C-alpha cells in the first residue's frame, strides 16, 4: 500500500509561519522546545534560518499538502560546532511531522525516509548527523529504522542529546537495497 507522494520545497518564513507555529507549539512537538513560542517568535526563528549560510529549512508536502518540516545544516557551523569531529560530507538534519487527527500507519517512517532521500540526493552528502534529545525514544527508534547508528550522548546548551550518524550505505541497507 502506498502512503502517497512526498515533495519538498524551500520554507517561506513569513508565508509559512502560522502553519509552523501550530506545529511547533503542539504538545507532540515538545522536543522542539517551542511550546510557548508566539507567532512572531516562529517568524523570527525561521527568518534567522533563512538568512543563515549553513542552515536551511524546507516544508515537506504529502500529496501536495503541508505535512512536515525539514531542516538541514552544516554541523561544522551550526548545532554541533565543537561537539564532535565532523567529516567531509556530514549534513545535520531535523524533521518534524505535522500534528494530525487522522494518523496514517507508517507515515512518520515514510517522512524520515523522504527526508533522507532528499539529503542523499546530493552526491556531496556522505553522512547524515542527528542530535535528538536523549529522552525522545520514539525518534531514536525511527532513526535506527532508517540506518542511524547511535554514537554517544553529548551535552548541548539546551539539552542532553544522542549523537547518531547514518551513512549512505547504512541508509540503503536499512531500506533493503543492495550496496
Task: Based on the model shown, name its key terms.
alpha+beta, 179 residues, 28% helix, seven-stranded mixed β-sheet
3D structure, described in words:
- The chain has 179 residues and is of the alpha+beta class.
- Helices cover 28% and strands 27% of the residues.
- Strands 1-2-3-4-5-7-6 form a seven-stranded mixed beta sheet, sandwiched between helices.
- β4, α3 and β5 (127-130) form a beta-alpha-beta unit.
- α1 (17-24) packs across α2 (39-51).
- The chain is globular, with a radius of gyration of 16 Å.
- The protein starts with 5 loop residues before the first strand and ends in a 5-residue tail after the last helix.
- The mean pLDDT is 94.
Short description:
The protein has helices at 17-24, 39-51, 107-120, 137-145, 168-174, and strands at 6-10, 55-62, 65-73, 90-97, 127-130, 149-155, 160-167. With 179 residues, it is an alpha+beta fold.
Q: What would you call the structural class?
A: alpha+beta
Number of strands: 7
From N to C, what is the helix and strand string?
EHHEEEHEHEEH
- Please give the largest β-sheet: 7 strands, mixed
Protein topology:
Elements: E1 6-10, H1 17-24, H2 39-51, E2 55-62, E3 65-73, E4 90-97, H3 107-120, E5 127-130, H4 137-145, E6 149-155, E7 160-167, H5 168-174
Parallel strand pairs: 4-5
Antiparallel strand pairs: 1-2, 2-3, 3-4, 5-7, 6-7
Helix pairs in contact: 1-2
Amino acid at each position: 500500500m502506498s502512503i502517497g507522494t512526498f515533495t519538498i520545497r524551500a520554507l517561506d518564513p513569513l508565508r509559512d509561519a502560522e502553519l509552523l507555529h501550530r506545529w511547533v507549539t503542539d504538545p507532540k512537538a515538545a522536543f522542539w522546545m517551542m511550546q510557548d513560542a508566539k507567532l512572531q517568535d516562529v517568524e523570527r526563528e525561521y527568518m534567522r534560518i533563512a538568512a543563515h549560510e549553513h542552515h536551511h529549512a524546507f516544508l515537506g508536502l504529502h500529496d501536495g499538502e503541508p505535512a512536515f518540516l525539514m531542516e538541514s545544516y552544516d554541523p561544522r557551523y551550526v548545532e554541533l560546532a565543537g561537539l564532535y569531529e565532523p567529516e567531509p560530507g556530514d549534513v545535520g538534519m531535523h524533521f518534524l511531522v505535522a500534528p494530525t487527527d487522522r494518523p496514517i500507519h507508517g507515515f512518520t517512517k515514510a517522512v524520515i525516509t523522504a527526508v533522507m532521500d532528499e539529503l542523499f540526493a546530493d552526491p556531496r552528502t556522505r553522512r547524515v548527523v542527528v542530535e535528538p534529545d536523549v529522552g525522545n525514544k520514539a525518534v531514536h527508534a525511527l532513526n535506527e529504522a532508517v540506518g542511524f547508528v547511535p554514537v554517544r550522548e553529548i551535552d548541548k546548551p539546551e539539552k542532553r542529546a544522542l549523537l547518531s550518524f547514518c551513512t549512505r550505505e547504512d541508509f540503503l541497507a536499512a531500506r533493503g537495497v543492495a550496496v
